């Protein structure tokens, strides 16, 4: 793993602040590493109980349950993967494609973009879901919450949602 080069990276943002990086290595392994500046900040909190704060990277075995859980489930996942031309087991590529609008408080953005998608229109996810045969406001997206659920009228969380934008709520203090 030490000799393997990073071939693709996703920046992980929480409330517009970078908290870490999710890397795919040329040997197929995956790593999640918290950002050093984030770890040093007084506001640092783990993105998951299964990924406590630490400087050392987490491997696929530790990171997969959390990151895979941000993606749609079962038939929705199959349809979106088919539409995007991806294997449904390829969590990294699915997050690369729709991670800016996945369920939950995090935004996962390809590293080259270097900026969170606050105020984006969620076009990738909306287009993928519609083309995959999922109807807006459909109970077929029942597993989605937060941002993705807002696209389909399922959000049980307060927040302003209009036809083009999802306004995310600030983190609870």
Summarize the structure.
It is built from six helices and five strands. The chain has helices at 36-40, 60-68, 74-84, 91-98, 123-131, 146-151; strands at 6-14, 17-25, 30-34, 58-59, 106-110.
How would you describe this protein?
This protein has 173 residues and is α+β, with helices and mostly antiparallel strands. It has one domain (6-151). The chain has helices spanning 36-40, 60-68, 74-84, 91-98, 123-131, 146-151; strands spanning 6-14, 17-25, 30-34, 58-59, 106-110. Strand 1 and strand 2 (17-25) form a beta hairpin. The longest helix is centred in the middle third of the chain and has 11 residues, at 74-84.
SSE layout and pairing:
Blueprint: E1 6-14, E2 17-25, E3 30-34, H1 36-40, E4 58-59, H2 60-68, H3 74-84, H4 91-98, E5 106-110, H5 123-131, H6 146-151
Antiparallel strand pairs: 1-2, 1-5, 2-3, 3-4
Helix pairs in contact: 3-5
Mean pLDDT: 74
Overall 3D geometry? Answer: globular
Across the major sheet, the strand order is 4-3-2-1-5
Helix residue percentage: 25-40%
- Proportion of β residues? 15-25%
**What's the gyration radius in Å?**
16 Å
How many beta-strand runs? 5
Number of helices: 6
Uncertain regions: pLDDT < 50 for 5+ in a row? Answer: 114-126, 133-170
Distance between the termini: 38 Å
Main sheet properties: 5 strands, antiparallel
What kind of oligomer do you see? single chain
Number of domains: 1
Order of helix and strand elements from N to C terminus? EEEHEHHHEHH
Pairing-aware structural class of the strands and helices?
Answer: alpha+beta
